[in-house]
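Predict fold of Transporter; 234 aa.
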Amino acid sequence: MKVALFLLADLWMIFAGYFYGWTFIRRYGNYLLGLETMVVATSGSNFLVWSLLGADPGSVLYDVAYFFDAFSRSVGITVILVMGLMGVTHRYRPSRGVDIAVFAAAVAAGLFLRPFHGADLHTDRAAFRVAVFYVAVNLLTAVFLGYFVKRLWQAGARRPAIWTALATAAGTTIALLYDFFPLPFDDADRTVFYTAALATWGTQIFVYFRAYRALHDRTAASDANPARTVGTPA
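Predicted 3D structure, encoded as tokens:
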């Protein structure tokens, strides 16, 4: 049962990442959010194949998995997420050069930080600092997401605001558990944790897309009818 739930959670994240990533690009031209959610989906696909092939820590897929992990935890679902959401909070439209530069930074961060995964945080001070860094950037991102929730609420998108707050709280909980608070009842492969993490990350993509759409639609309606009060509870 645990394995089946793990696979379902991974498949959910893969679907959410590719489907909503493509929709971000096709419908809104938001390459930052679109490509990053596709990166998350690709990471999930790699993790799925690695797991089905026996979860060999000596496999190249293992190294690829933790490259993607470092990519998203450092820059992807932090800086890139914030910049992407600024498309509806600040009408921010980065140039293609900025898009390329921020993803290049994420690749560099992923390559640099990947080797620190799995080290003993009690004896490896560098690995401990990296783990603290991951939590710190997650918390800073959560602060912006709190602002995003406020903007949704003020626009009348009450349900998307509530779901965004809940999804962000769940994501921050996963970030804290990841390195510092392993579940005492979990198995050696951390199946329960990874099932919860994959399900949470997929749900975050789904919730953030719907929140983005809600704020985008209300902003567009406000622009079309400047004298009209926009926003009824959604």
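The two ends are 36 Å apart (CA to CA).
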